[in-house]
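Researcher: Next entry in the queue.
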Amino acid sequence: MSAKAAPAVVNLIYLPLSLLSGLWLPIMLFPEAMQWFAWLLPTFHISQLALSTIDATLGFPVYLHVAVLITQTLALFFVAQIKFKQA
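Model: Structure for this entry, 87 residues:
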């Protein structure tokens, strides 16, 4: 992929993630399966941390979102490290 294509690829990934994570619509409007899927997305947890500053979260504690983000970061770090060693 060329350097000129990178912004388009990032938008193709980020825009659906932000929609599915409840960034533009509350996830309570989604079907139950999509609500569970939103919990897997890091953008959902980041948005909940941002919404906690104005007390507009879904009622879950902040440390839960931080713990999920740290877990996802560490897991992806180790995957990247393994792939880097293979290359």
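Model: Residues 23 and 43 are 8 Å apart (CA to CA).
Researcher: Noted, moving on.
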